[in-house]
Amino acid sequence: MRLLLVEDDPQLQQQLAQHLQSSGFSVDVADDGKTGLFQACEYPYDAAIVDVGLPYIDGITLIQTLRKQQINFPILVLTARDHWQDRVAGLDAGADDYLAKPFVTEELLARLNALIRRSVGQASPVINNGPLSINTKSQQVSVNGNVVSLSSSEYRLIEYMLMHLGEVNSKSQLTEHIYNEDFDLDSNVIEVFIRRLRKKLDPDNGYGFIETLRGQGYRLVNLNKDSNG
């Protein structure tokens, strides 16, 4: 999942970015509201973390502007602990949740993951597709109860596809949501990871989890429909 972090405190920004990256997220950062607005309009994000007190464009105005432009990814707003007005203003502006500083990074991760899940209609951290199961909290993937070992990039790819079950995803779309803005979008890395996932998740091709649509991209087949009759 690809995140936008808009935070002007260099130390906090660096700490958060490192923690989020170590938790499997691809993170783009912005030091002020003006840069954050540009990036949010330019790149496809799965969620954003926005501080209220930003230079040039404050966090509340940034969120309001994004919502007016129909940019609807989940937003977690960061506020000062003693400024309850900022929390109310952030939610009224269109933020989906808030976290007061100082905070524990584990809580930030839990809230962020919950926002992303809810944005695609998933309430539980465990997401199933037939015999395929992903625990987004522990980042554990299993098939028929057997844990499958994946690299961090392979996990990010299958997690995104499962979050968008049944949807066709182009190679560029997958790359944009899994890697940050500096990644080479012309790379064939997605093809390599799709091949590895097929081999690891379904070596005998008994389930046909991942479907290739020539000229369009890839789709994770919805096997829940079959199991539900």
Key traits:
five-stranded parallel sheet; 229 residues; alpha/beta; Arc Repressor Mutant, subunit A; Rossmann fold; four-stranded antiparallel sheet
Please tell me about this protein's structure.
The protein is of the alpha/beta class and 229 residues long. The chain folds into two domains: 2-119, Rossmann fold, CATH 3.40.50; 126-227, Arc Repressor Mutant, subunit A, CATH 1.10.10. The chain is built from nine helices and twelve strands. The strands form three sheets. It has a five-stranded parallel sheet, sandwiched between helices. Strands 6-7-8-9 form a four-stranded antiparallel sheet, with helices on one face. Helix 2 (33-42) runs parallel beside helix 3, helix 3 (59-68) runs parallel beside helix 4 (84-93) and helix 6 crosses helix 8. The longest helix has 15 residues, at 105-119.
**How many distinct helices?**
9
- The proportion of residues in beta strands is 15-25%
Q: What's the arrangement of strands in the largest beta sheet? A: 2-1-3-4-5
Low-confidence stretches: none
CATH architecture of the largest domain, please?
3-Layer(aba) Sandwich
Instruction: Give the name of the CATH superfamily of the largest domain.
Output: Response regulator
Number of domains: 2
- The radius of gyration over CA amounts to 18 Å
Largest sheet: 5 strands, parallel
Class by helix and strand content? alpha/beta
Mean pLDDT: 91
Helix and strand element order: EHEHEHEHEHEEEEHEHHEEH
N/C terminus separation = 31 Å
What percent of the residues sit in helical stretches (DSSP H or I)?
40-55%
Task: Give the CA-based shape.
Answer: elongated
Please name the CATH topology of the largest domain: Rossmann fold
Would you count the extended β strands for me?
A: 12
